Amino acid sequence: MKKSVKIMLFAALAATLTGCASGKSPESTKETNATNTTAAATAKSEETKAYTIGIAQFAEHGSLDNCREGFLKGLAEEGLEEGKNLTVLYENAQADGGTASQIVNNFLAKKTNLICAIATPMAQAAYSGAKKADIPVIFTAVTDPAAAALANEDGTPVGEITGTSDKLPVEKQLEMIRKILPDAKKIGILYSTSEVNSETAIKEYKAAAANYGFEIVEGPVTATADIPLAADSILEKVDCLNNLTDNTVVSSLPLILDKAGKKNIPVFGSEVEQVKIGCLAAMGLDYVDLGKQTGVMAAKVLKGEAKASELNFEVIKDAAFYGNSKVAETLGITLPKDMTDTAAEIFTDISKGTK
Amino acid sequence: MSIILGVLEEGLVYAIMALGVYITYKILDFPDLSVDGTFPLGGAVTVTLILAGFNPLATLFIAFAIGALAGCITGFIHVKLKVRDLLSGIIVMTALYSVNLRVAGKANVPFFNVNTIFENSLVNRLFPASLSSITVVIILALIVLIVKFILDQYLKTRSGYLLRAVGDNETLVTSLAKDRGMVKIVGLAIANGLASLAGSVYCQQKGFFEISMGTGTIVIGLANVIIGTKLFKRVGFVKSTTAVIIGSIIYKACVSFAIYLGMEASDLKLITSVLFLAILVLSNGREKKVKA
Fold it and tell me: Model's pTM, two decimal places?
């Protein structure tokens, strides 16, 4: 009896497999390619060699998507193009830790030449799984690799893992806010207590705020559902809001911008995507650039020019100014001319969506 | 091969938790949401203790005890303060989020290079390097079997029978001059102890604690229990506890299979649920045939 149950089960699985996989047949041919190259991944590279990489992204939002886009661009600059000599398997954990480790297991099973992990929890899951399998991991969008135990305190790798950090230029951001809002006193920051990156950033902001005559008002949230209430309450207390790269908060940014806009309170962002959708300004990162930098590192590892364990993690050196003149106009604020002149980009409209 | 090992690893870890959910949901008929909090509680306790230099094996027992304590609180709120079952679970689950943050200190605590139950000198001595890929599965299977064995034995004791009686017929327990409230509290304590134990094992295997790791635990637990018990409903010689363990492995196999298919990332959950549905419907169809 038990046997027949099993047979039924396998039949069900097989049915789904054939049903779903019929449109996906090219992948299986590429997979054989991948297994062949794995063994020789560290050996001298040839122009004709093809690679398979797995990109594991923790959650779905603009910044992280930009990272992935930039990563592929970075690889392409180094001559590794998707569809030509590069097969890219992409999975998204939808912010679920259990799925994250299963995605990594799946990449290990498919013997990808490299795993690219986007965001801290994903990078930890990837490192935890890949260290036994001897597959290099390249991470990006990890704010503090040392605190996440993905790098040593001095920046050297802890194993076959390296990547780029999206550490925020805190001092420069505070300096910018001071220039734009000379009379502001209190800066509110919404962040989720479940993200260790945000905690690190909050600490830095608190330490540096006094130098610029600011006081930081914290608005901790535990989940997306808390954000409306937390935003209402913090907006009563502050002169402006400042955004981190907090995944939970950034995902709800349109809502926060809407609430702040009604009270005529400016919101500052931390990267280009946030300014595009309605933050006043940011001294921030361009995640596409960050991704590109990461892609270049990955190419080095894939081609065997360097091992991941030989590369220290990198940070973006220069933060650039991004402003949104449309938002400034609505708020009745003029962005200082010396800043707009040197800006990396000034948006004149509020983007309604990213598609 | 490594994908099967991955499924076994994940499935076995969650099986420990599912055995707990089996007690509350199937035996006590109590939908206990506190496991969403006690699963990460076990993890938080574990990282804190291990980083403080405790023996990894000892942390398993401590995690179980602390989880059991949390379960007692859920039971106390329900039985003594007369709060509805669902709500008492929600209260404890919500409170535990803060407790977990306090215990762990941070939302994400890594501990990659320390001794755990999976990586220590004894394990390295016992298992030759050639077996290193299946070491984790062997250890997990061992833990799950021990837990299952103890639970099976317990359910045969006086206290175990009372536990089952409370779920089936509360009046009977009262007529035996036993306090059914106490029995419920004991059941919740065991269930949450197991969830916390699972959290401890999970963290030791993954090498980091993450505050969000508990989200959706109860959903996974219920799915495991239902898949397992449903599939083996008609198979007399398979114990319910065994069925739950197999159910958990099947659940994770579905998720893994959905990932393996390499569909669009956003469709992952949809594919997973279609697979569950297929399994449940198929097991239904079989039952009818048996009846006819």
Answer: 0.77
